[in-house]
Design brief:
Arc Repressor Mutant, subunit A; Tetracycline Repressor, domain 2; about 210 residues; 2 domains
Amino acid sequence: MQRKELTAKGKATRRRIVEGAAELLRVQGVGSVTLDDVMARTSTSKSQLFHYFPDGKDELLLAVARFEAEQVLEDQQPYLGRLDSWEDWRRWRDVVVARYEAQGDTCPLGSLFLQVGRSTPGARAIVVELMRQWQESLAAGIRATRANSGAEAGADVDARAAALLAAIQGGVSILLSTGRSDHLRAALDQGIADLRRDLDPAPAATPR
């Protein structure tokens, strides 16, 4: 059954529920948060909650997962959206490292997917869209930097962006396992240095 389009007020209420649930889940963990907790945190009645999330907790968790995925990209702005100089790449690198260091050895998005099932269609779609947008932003940055540097088209931009994204995810996985960001820092520094060797006429230098 097709659901009715929400009004502006309805969208605001739904977002308030999602953001409130996200805050609870980060603090208490996915397994310990109940719908009653969400209702109390967001001053929402049971009828309101099920109006916006008819399928209950699993639907709410997917909405929170989508919100957390959006935050991954939002936290990298404004630098992710304007990667057209090596200084912007350095600043973006610092923002990414700082974000994941602050997150520590827990991942809200990963915890949510464990609860709802990473392989469920909704969860998989969220991951696919997150990675698509992230890779496209990196590829756009590589193209902009190449244009500004005057370098000739050479390396496969999409492949470079994919490799850089894979390196980040590997570094983050190790951070989640060990609590250490050394590998994430090294992956980003090496990825940017490789880009610079391809695009900058001057010898590449590893950022900081």
